[in-house]
Request: fold
Amino acid sequence: MIHFINIITTRAILCLTLLGASVLFSVQSQAGDWRYSVRPGDTIWSICNQYTTHNDCWRDLAGHNQINNPKQLSTGTVLLIPVEWLKQAPVAAQAVYISGEVVFSSANQKPAELVNGQDLRIGHRIEVGQGSATLRFADGATIVMSANSELIIDSSSAIKQARAQSIEVSLPRGEVQVTVPKRMPRTQFRIKTPSAVAAVRGTKFRVISVVPSAQGQSAAMRSEVLEGIVGVSSSGESQDISAGQGVSTIEGQGLSPAATLIAAPRWSRNCNDPGYVEWQVSLSATQYRLALMEDDISMDKVISTVSVADSNYVFKGLEEGCYQVKVNAVDGQGYNGLESQRRLCYQAKLDTPQITQAEFSRSGLSSDWEQVQDAMRYRIEVSEEPDFSSVIATETTEALSVNLSPDSSVNSVYVRVKALADEIPESDYSEPVHLVRENNKNLLIGILATVLAFVAL
Reply:
């Protein structure tokens, strides 16, 4: 299991943006205010009536925002609404997959176990121990938190599709992978760490927030871009990082030059033993990272992760079924490379097919067999010997029957079949069926009948 480095940071200012039916909100925890953008037709009274429970809101809101003429509100004016006046803070995200030790808390809530389906609101802090958590935001953006990570939801907006989504989170420690949907207008997603900020609009990237390992050392951040472009800023310096690049920074020292990430490893499929995966070696790699996930290509649902030095690994003790597996190489600077992903089906082996019909005549050999679940192809072998030491014909087919034409000089054969699949170990061969050409069989029967008749006389 991968253990990510921890860091310590001060809690970032919390802000919330809620946009529904062309309405925009945000909240700042320091000031205790939500921000509301005035739309056409709004009045102080209508805003208070729709979004607050404060009895004197229509009177107090103007004073709170230093509005001299509350009867004249300009479209787009931002009003600050105290959080305690609001009817309910909106849901910012939802926990869609939890594995291992994960808790969430807020300023007014003690840590509690985070479970699948749990709604998360602005200000919630999510902490992952030995496990992982996948969070999905209102517009479909997802964050996958790795082991030993901590994340705070600073702001999020619930939007109509015609409006841009704005999401901001803080990452005091650990690692996350973010996937922002490719939609227009594109979501604005920001991740704040103690040493830098990564901001994107429609992309896929990782952020690792590194804790000082000793007193006097500074926090650090590393960002790796898998798709799109990420803007990273630190100490007044900004840089756009493209897909296939990474950048790092140490608090107060600005950004490093962009580094090129190791290319995605190519899978090797020479062996299909249960749970075994193998990939081609990268000469620049110091190690490889593997993630075993649920069989869901719509988002990452990480079951476990592991770092290995070799270019192969065996997942042991899995329940039978199919999974997704990702691998990336890690270089000498600690950058995680681009990912390769494949489906892995863990099953002892396919069931053995049984031959249901077989005939051997002058026109050739035909055979049928039963269908095997999950099988994609079948391999048929024909031999003159019962141990198949000399195979005279073989064929691989997706069908459940075959027609072969052994040499006309062959009068007796043995036939067997096995099931094949790409991700599941192949089956055993079926029990061989012994066949004799019909013309020779009829001749033998005639001779035998004649002999029996002669004996009877």
